[in-house]
Amino acid sequence: MVQKFSLDSSKCIYCAGCVSVCPVLALTLNETKILCDEGKCIACGTCEKGCPVAAIKITKP
Ligand code: SF4
Ligand code: SF4
Asked: Which of the residues in the chain have pLDDT under 70?
């Protein structure tokens, strides 16, 4: 299975903006990483568009 969500952690500033805009609550923030529940993600691209530092890349399945 192709991974939908990928994060460039060298860009991410851990603002948690993506976590709050995800319509299906697929994203969570822990101390060091944004985690995506790939089973929940619908690849809508909302997090990718909203990220202020363009750290997220969404691949449509
Ligand atoms: S919106 Fe972007 S910078 Fe903010 S936590 Fe998510 S991936 Fe990181
Ligand atoms: S692409 Fe959409 S469903 Fe998937 S993590 Fe981002 S906001 Fe959530």
From this structure: none
